[in-house]
Design brief:
Layout (H helix, E strand, L loop, with lengths): L14 H6 L2 E2 L8 E2 L4 H14 L3 H4 L10 H19 L5 H18 L6 H13 L7 E3 L6 E3 L12 H20 L3
Antiparallel strand pairs: 1-2, 3-4
Helix pairs in contact: 4-5, 4-6, 5-6
């Protein structure tokens, strides 16, 4: 099965969240898909972020993480997901923050002078997210469970991507409503 990094895959609004969202159906062990399990797909993520990522101007031309940095990028991704998912649910914990900060520090120590490497840019993006003054803008999509930043003026964005998850939710609601209306 072929896979490509389309604009929808970068609907998180921050590189760190897009990296965290590289695990599809995270909460469902039966159907969970880790897009970074394939090194070629992980490497292609940098090019996709350069084309579609919300922070592409901030980090310049991203390059794939080095082969030796891949395990660290995965550890960073998981720490990002645990911390920001708990924050979005209003269940932030100092231990999760400490884990995230340790993963960021380890990544930055390891990266040396490679500021455009995906792992380094992801760590920097996570630091920027930590410094945002409006944590209520961090949300979880009710359809796909991806993390995203709500940058709407009135903070009313409900889905990570209206064209995909929003339409699916509306179609499901329409189907259920019509099904109930036609019951004998």
């Amino acid at each position: 099965m072929t896979f490509s990094w389309t604009p929808h895959r970068f609907s998180g609004g921050a590189l760190a969240l897009d990296v965290a969202n590289s695990v599809v159906l995270r909460a469902d062990p039966e159907r969970r898909i880790d897009r970074f399990a394939d090194p070629a797909v992980m490497d292609a993520f940098a090019a996709g972020a350069n084309r579609h990522g919300a922070e592409r101007d901030l980090f310049g031309g991203l390059e794939p993480a080095s082969e030796t940095a891949r395990a660290g990028l995965i550890a960073l991704r998981e720490a990002i997901d645990r911390h920001f998912r708990a924050e979005a649910l209003g269940q932030g914990q100092p231990a999760l923050l400490a884990d995230l900060l340790e993963a960021i520090a380890a990544t930055l120590r390891r990266s040396g002078a490679q500021p455009q490497a995906l792992d380094t840019a992801t760590a920097r993006s996570a630091l920027l997210l930590l410094s945002r003054p409006e944590p209520e803008r961090l949300k979880i999509c009710p359809n796909c469970q991806w993390l995203f930043l709500d940058r709407s003026r009135n903070r009313s964005r409900a889905w990570c991507d209206m064209a995909v998850c929003g339409n699916r939710a509306k179609a499901n609601r329409h189907y259920r409503r019509n099904r109930e209306d036609h019951r004998p």
